[in-house]
Specification:
2 copies of one chain form a homodimer. Chain A is globular and about 60 Å long. In chain A, 56% of the residues lie in helices and 17% in strands. By secondary structure, chain A is of the alpha+beta class. At the A-B interface, α3, β1, β2 and β5 of A face β1, β2, α6 and β5 of B.
């Protein structure tokens, strides 16, 4: 039996969201080979997520936007509760605006919740070290770090971004406004953005 | 001398991208046996494509295809070497056909090389256990496992799939025929496929 490293288990959980036992058993199955265990847990996690997704909102719209004659492309899925709302002009306009936003601003995530905890920890560490290196007093470092973290979220997370066509609104505001108009929950489920040769 | 059917020449050219003379001579060489001529021309095309495969392909096209009024979406990036080829009808038709293929057949990977080794090992293990459980003799288990693995690749990998509009060709064949026509390396870089609520 290979001795399983607790650091490996922790890392696997961060990367896949697997339980402690599941991560440990998979590592043991592959004699401590981290990359193999990671690939298997990811595949399992993907299947579990697919099952859960069936229970939530199933209606909505998949929209694409291609720019520059095929040099840039965006695809986004936005869910609502009924076919009826999916066909409304207000909903379609929202989805189109979100596609344009993604093309223009290159977000990495839908929401802050989609950032892996390890990534946030890494950012915090980086911002803290930078603040200390600049000689900031310890009692205001936390405040500085939180400010930089918020700025990072505003750039990386679609829902936190200011809307390109009206920077007084965030995309979250835009969605909430549409929810109020159509009377149904609306969720940006996922998006992807390709740049040619990038 | 066998009379060579112009329909056969046309079909061979479509399937392999070979020139008229090349298609005609190969058919004559095999006394009009279409399948043999096809196999030889495919092999020739493969070798020519391999030579081009090392060339950098950074131009091309990002194409999207949306079906069912927003219920299914596909985005694909296909690279070629120059802007000039990216604008050719032959290249654009290829990219469009690939997008339709992905929409229809739901591949998981571009090529076999994109499957994580751990996933292939897991499949092998599963197929082996199934064959042994069925009481297959040990000396043919490997053969059965390889057969099942090939079947899995044909389903999961875009390049191995039979083309939906002509199942005599794989997508790889279709790409090679286009490479022969346009004279540049062509690579499917990445794709993504969304199904509403899935």
């Amino acid at each position: 039996m290979t001795a399983i490293n607790t650091e490996q288990i922790k890392k696997l959980r961060e990367l896949t969201g697997a339980g402690v036992l599941d991560a440990k058993r998979t590592l043991e199955e592959f004699n401590g080979d981290f990359d193999k265990a990671l690939a298997i847990l990811k595949e399992k996690g993907m299947k579990a997520a697919e099952k859960k997704a069936e229970r939530v909102a199933k209606q909505g719209l998949i929209e694409t936007y291609v720019h520059g004659g095929g040099k840039l492309g965006v695809m986004v899925e936005v869910n609502c509760e009924t076919d009826f709302v999916a066909a409304l002009a207000e909903f379609r306009e929202l989805v189109h605006n979100i596609a344009l936003q993604i093309a223009a601003t290159k977000p990495e995530y839908v929401s802050v919740e989609d950032i892996a905890p390890a990534v946030i920890e890494e950012k915090k560490k980086m911002f803290t070290e930078a603040a200390l290196a600049e000689g900031k007093p310890a009692h205001i470092v936390e405040k500085i770090v939180n400010g930089k973290l918020e700025a990072y979220y505003k750039e990386a997370c679609l829902l936190r971004q200011p809307f390109i066509r009206d920077d007084q609104q965030t995309i979250q505001d835009l969605i909430q406004a549409t929810i109020a108009k159509v009377g149904e929950n609306i969720v940006v489920k996922r998006f992807v953005r390709y740049e040619l040769g990038a």
